[in-house]
Amino acid sequence: MSVYEFRRTVSPQAAAAWTPRQVLLTNLRAVGGRAYPRVHGLFREKSWVFFEVLLPFLSTSTFVFVYRALRAPPEYIGFVVLGGAMTAFWLNVIWMMASQLWWEKSQGNLELYFAAPMSIMSVLFGMALGGMVMSSTRAVIVLAVASLLYEVRFAIDQWLLLLAVFFLTLAALYGLGMMLASLFLVWGREAFQMSQLFTEPVYFVSGLNFPVARLGLLGALALATIPLAVGLDAMRQLAFIGANFPIGTPPPEVEALILVVMTVVFLVAARWMLRTLERRARREGRLSVRWQ
């Protein structure tokens, strides 16, 4: 269905007269519609599953063997395994969230989103939910296989806090992805380069394979700006109770509050950016920045 056919089916005047219940149901359908292809397509392409699990596992194994050769404390093996599992979520945020609106624009689908009688945030929420489910399967496989193969021993006392920190980390990560989706759309063709730019540096400053506290001031800046760094630091403190050396800097409870603040800030910023883009599209007929 073309955008013009869609407008004839549901006119703006008719959509404006909808009740709050109709608006809510329409947005919920949009969330389900965007989550569906990511959930349903989990194992449609078997080769994707193989490589998305194998490559993070190989990277994790590299650092495991390095720490074993250095005779590092066994907790460091667990740090690497936990970081390797969280890699799946960061890659999903960068490649399946931040770049998604730019890809939709390149394929000619973006005008349908803006013409449809729904909030564009519903589209991004659907992408986020589907991405969480899709990435969780990869993360669970990497975590389970690596933990069994390398004999990682977790020591967890506060299960509820650990689960809360995990879900808060996902909420903050995908909130960041929604905000970056607007920025990448504005940047236009530079979106792909920005995706490449943000991948490896974030791995380093987030302490993906080592405690972020070892980075000193750089680590403190990462804890203030990058949800992956905060979530990993808190989960490591909660998953390896009784380690003979300091693992993190702020207590997990403080880092959980930081994640709550990050989630709110990123979601509010994403909503403001999307509304700004809609106004620009209507006023100027474009979405990208006009560089001087």
What does this structure look like?
Helix content is 77%, strand content 0%. The protein has 292 residues and is mainly alpha-helical. It has one domain. The longest helix is centred in the C-terminal third of the chain and has 33 residues, at 252-284.
Give a nutshell description of this structure.
It contains 13 helices and no strands. The chain is mainly α and 292 residues long.
Describe this protein with a few key phrases.
292 residues, mainly alpha, 0% strand, disordered N terminus
Flag low-confidence runs. Answer: 1-9
Taking the sheet with the most strands, its summary is: none
Number of domains: 1
Radius of gyration: 21 Å
Q: What's the order of the H and E elements?
A: HHHHHHHHHHHHH
Rounded mean pLDDT is 79
Distance between the termini: 38 Å
Rough outline: elongated
List the topology elements.
Elements: H1 3-9, H2 12-16, H3 20-40, H4 46-69, H5 75-98, H6 100-107, H7 110-115, H8 120-149, H9 159-187, H10 191-205, H11 217-225, H12 227-239, H13 252-284
